[in-house]
Description:
This protein is an alpha/beta fold and 369 residues long. The protein contains 13 helices and 5 strands. It has 2 domains: 237 residues, no CATH class; 114 residues, abc type-2 transporter like fold. The chain is 65% helix and 8% strand. Strands 2-1-3-4-5 form a 5-stranded mixed β-sheet, with helices on both faces. The longest helix has 32 residues. The two termini are 26 Å apart.
Amino acid sequence: MKRYFTATFALTRAYITRFFRDKMAMFFTFLFPLLFLFVFGSLYNNDTGDISFKVAVINNSSSAFAEQFETQLDESDTFEVSETITDFDDAKERMGRGEIDSIIELPNGFGEVNAAQQPSGSVDVYYSEASPQSGQTIAAVMQGVLDGINTELGQPAPPLTVTQKSTATANLSSFDYVFSGLIGFSILSLGIFGLANQMPAEKKTGSFRRLRASPIRKSQLIFANMIYYLLIGIISVVLMFVVAMMVFNFEMRGDWAALTVYIILGIITMFGFGLAIGGWAKNENQSAALTNLVAFPLMFLSGVFFPRFLMPEWLQGITGFLPLTPIIDGLRMIMTEGASLLQLGPELALMGAWMVIIYTVAIKVFRWE
């Protein structure tokens, strides 16, 4: 066992030394993820102030006026009312994830007639503490709507008003949401594209054939490459976090230790696919075709560039089992919602299952030349 790990780490050290002597390889390996970060960070860092607001309407009133008012909001061009959210806790959770901008609650008794035989009451507009501007804007728009109704009712003292309330949740900014996807994309591209191209190139030069003549086993070669690329992946992710905090004002809301452990596990999981493809392929042509077949579905179905909740429900159920999905979901929950590793039990279990499967496959299908 001692000789097994000694040989593995010696091979890892040789790969690392060779990589850091190649300045061009270092430049493109670390620059490529940063270019994507700058491009997408610039796109998502600034909100454009859309005219339409995504809201959830929670109607707790049984009055006819409240039902009519809810219908008018649904037909309004200013508000995009979610048809699937009917529970306040569900609405609060979705607003915390950035799926909706605000919650409009019609409290019990809203719209019931007062002493002047006119509908009265107050509309509660909930906003996130991390983004109060959207709630204030929606409250102002809502007050304008109610002022118009008050004028039609001919009331000097407005019987219909708006009250702003906080949900005490930290709402995601556009950049916060997309940043975890960019980290996942960096891990995906470095692990699959990098390893799947590098290992066939090694076979072409005959270096693996020469290693085969030594006591090195297939598993040792697989794990040595994994550890070597793991170090590179960690450096790349650290650089992305530095740029995100210095340039795009990223705020970490979770625990750094939990995030570090989760990123390492995510890198190990995804790099197994690159090792399996690169170990099986005889040349770059074979690896390129298989790499695209594996990488592109993961890229577009795991929430890298756009959220999975926009997909049909049946597709969300399928994509939830993809290996990159728990990595991105877990990163997003730690970074933006402060989730702990215990709360990410399902994601960790799925990553662990994929880790066992893919490394078993990588060792079984590896070819020396």
